[in-house]
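G., the chain you wanted modeled:
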Amino acid sequence: MKLRLILSIFVIILIIISISQIFTIPPYSEDMYKAYKSGYYTELDRGFNIIKDAFVSIKTMTEPGYGWIFISEMEKKYGFKIKIYDDKGLEIMVPGEKGGAGDEVIQKIVNSPRPEVQDKIIKDRYFSAIPVVAERNCRFCHRMKNPGDLIGIITFERSYDSHIYYSSERILIFIFVTFILSIFLFIILKWNPGKKIKEMFDN
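Predicted structure as tokens:
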């Protein structure tokens, strides 16, 4: 049947594409980022959150200025670009000294009733803006804030190695896709409705 032939050709093309994606060829991780966020970026996010939590702890338990010293050391050690913003989206250069307002990503978090992490790929760098919400111990400094209120935003920007995406994660995903497509192709090849119709008429 023509339908079976067309379906078989279509599935074979998909299998070829799926097999090709096991190897290091486009699309790369940044191309697929909007559709699928690789575990590699999730690990970067985890590292950012550790630094964010450490900054908040240092600022809360010691002098606020030590938090900025910590951020400066992280930037030097890991090559990050880190910025701190207040709850109005103004950059805090050092405690008591504020700069200009943040970009549209920062304003989106500030104006959101439920602030969430915002991340994106900027050329060859990965950017993440993480909201900092108030906890009970934050009220020592932020007396007007209730638990859950936005008290600031920390942004991280760093270079990344997209080739790390071509690891076991990518290989396993496309091996699984190829396996499913192969089963589907087998079912199509075995499918023969014309034979069943002929048997019906013979009976």
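The domain at 33-164 is CATH 3.30.450 (Beta-Lactamase).

Shout if anything looks off.
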